[in-house]
Amino acid sequence: MVFGARKLAGIAVILIAVGFVLPTASPLVTTAHAQEVRRSGGGGLLRFLFRRAEPQPPPVQRQPQRVAPRRAQPQAKRQRPAAPPPVIAKPAIEKNEDAKRVLVVGDFLAGGMAEGLEAAFAENADILVVNRSSGSSGFVRDDYYNWPGEIAGMLDKEKPAAVVVMIGSNDRQQLVVAGNREQPRTDPWLKEYEARATAFAKIIDGKDVPLLWVSAIPFKSGSMTSDMLAFNDIYRRVAESVDGEFVDVWDGFADENGAFVANGPDMNGQPAQLRSGDGINITRAGRRKIAFFAEKPLNRILGGNAVPGAPSLEAAPLGAVPGEAPKEIERTQPISLGDPELDGASELLGSLVAPRNGEPRNAGERFLRKGLSLEAKPGRADDFLPHRAKPDADTAARTDPDNTGALRR
């Protein structure tokens, strides 16, 4: 009971305090309160003081807008480039059983030249290129490959119509001379090297086989290039000593100063890469170019059969072909004597002409006989005299020296 009385007393105090505050409140607050009471349906002061928070309406959930899917634009199909037509290799022409054999010997450059010669004579059934080169060989290392000892057996087996040699790229090594190791290009070295090359060439000459010795070519290394120049002098002397032919291909692989070039004109004059990146080996275009230099002398040696379709020299008579006898001339055609007198003459050449007397008949005779030149016509290039207006009759009469107006006695 005591607690209930205290609670009621507290409420009364609160009500009294509110009663003093409410009269001083703003009319705006009173009006708002009245509106709130009416909106809430009444309830008095206690509802105003102890009202519960009104539940908030649930948030409106917006429906996601459906976006129409974009239609994929039709993309033009990329057309793949048409594959190039297959290159149909020409069928290899079968060589005749009696085809003339061209024996190619030497080092790795000779092997490349042999490939070029095979391409050059690929369509010729009468020429067969036999490649018997050895890539690492030379005249120095006869313990590895002895060319003077091997060439005789090759000649007996192949029975070639011509031998083509290209060698020397591997010969920049010490050479054993009389038990001593000599450095390259010393006097003993050069003498021994030329002796070995000469022995090799004499074996070919002894078999009565024509010899073509193709020169060495420049290399990227300057010292190697200078050595090849010295070797070429030896090869030229050796080839000429056995009535062989030295084929100089140096300029085809060098610039105007004789130095190494990797690129240059091919056999058709078109720019091409002739040497590989190491500056030593040769490309396919380079191999074909070396063979191009050797083709012409080979054609002379092998005769007409070296060129497809050319007549054979063996079938041609050795003597001169007699020509037809000249026809006997019975009469000559009449000669007209009334030709235009362009130079003032009317006689034939070779006849005796009597000197002409009298006045010259044309300007040419006047110039030759009397030295009189042509009269200058007004407006012509040789008319250098000043022109004067032609005087009228009165002026001419006044200026006439015979008409002075003096009295005549």
Report the sheet-strand fraction: 5-15%
CATH class of the domain at 100-306: Alpha Beta
- Unreliable runs, pLDDT <50, ≥5 residues? 20-30, 308-316, 401-409
Q: CATH architecture of the domain at 100-306, please?
A: 3-Layer(aba) Sandwich
- Please give the count of helices: 10
User: How many β-strands, per DSSP?
Assistant: 9
Order of helices and strands: HHHEHEHEEEHEHEEEHHH
Q: Give the helix level as a range of percent.
A: 25-40%
Radius of gyration: 60 Å
Question: Could you tell me how far the N terminus lies from the C terminus, measured between alpha carbons in angstroms?
Answer: 201 Å
- Classify the fold: give the CATH topology of the domain at 100-306: Rossmann fold
- Widest beta sheet: strand line-up: 2-1-3-6-7
- The CATH homologous superfamily of the domain at 100-306 is named SGNH hydrolase
Structure, briefly:
The chain has helices spanning 2-24, 27-40, 44-49, 108-120, 147-158, 187-206, 222-241, 284-302, 363-370, 393-399; strands spanning 100-106, 127-131, 162-166, 175-177, 180-182, 211-214, 245-247, 263-265, 271-273. It is α/β, with parallel strands linked by helices. A five-stranded parallel β-sheet has the order 2-1-3-6-7, sandwiched between helices. Strands 4-5 form a two-stranded antiparallel ribbon. A two-stranded antiparallel sheet has the order 8-9.
How does the SSE layout of this entry go?
Blueprint lengths: L1 H23 L2 H14 L3 H6 L50 E7 L1 H13 L6 E5 L15 H12 L3 E5 L8 E3 L2 E3 L4 H20 L4 E4 L7 H20 L3 E3 L15 E3 L5 E3 L10 H19 L60 H8 L22 H7 L10
Parallel strand pairs: 1-2, 1-3, 3-6, 6-7
Antiparallel strand pairs: 4-5, 8-9
Helix pairs in contact: 4-8, 5-6, 6-7
